[in-house]
Fold this protein.
Amino acid sequence: MIEEQPFNVTSVAAVYDRRQGTAVSNRRSASDPQHAAVIDRRYSTRAIATVAVLLASSLLHAAESGKSVSLFDGKTFAGWEGDTAKSFRIEDGAIVGGSMKEKVPRNEFLCTTRPYTNFVLRLKFKLLGGPKANAGVQIRSQRVPNHHEVCGYQADMADPAWWGCLYDESRRRKVLAKSDMEALNKVLKRDDWNDYVIRCEGKRIRLAINGLQTVDYTEPDDAIPQHGIIGLQIHGGPPSEAWYKDIIIEELP
């Protein structure tokens, strides 16, 4: 065991002064007790102030890392990219994908312009178009180069039993974790607004709709990226619309 040395303010102050190019004379401090006391007080104050600044900076950083941020301002597509000319529009403070007037020709995705790793994503969604309407929220995903598709995890939404499932879009192309539709049907509001909460921490992904956890999945494959963009999907098919609003993200360490 290494014996700890007692904390000495004067020695700390002397080191600090040397770094600033203004070393203190220890000989004068030793021969002049009054001067030594002044030095001790001055550098005690400086050391305390330095510690306070470092502590405040640390706390500020911690607060910012857990701060909730809106990803959609309700008016513009700032921070998003995709086919905003036809596939996606903004209406009544929400992002709307698809159309009730014509078929949706193919899958389309409106994606964030920056990637995310660990986070809690909260949003409201509404799916219109009957039992064949289909949509989802992409997480930790990537754009397929020179293609309209996106590959990665998807928090799914569709009848008869896709609601609340975790699907692997354009990659493994399968359901990774199923929801309990018997339980979910008790809280799901079809053709109306619902709350989706998506929590990604390390390899663990949890989904919840209207307060009911539907999936708790841990990725077993080390080769699967655990970071990427967030995307809002409207699935190709019959006339249908996917509405998204109040999109809030809280990044985690």
User: Anything to note?
Assistant: The first strand starts at residue 68 and ends at 70.
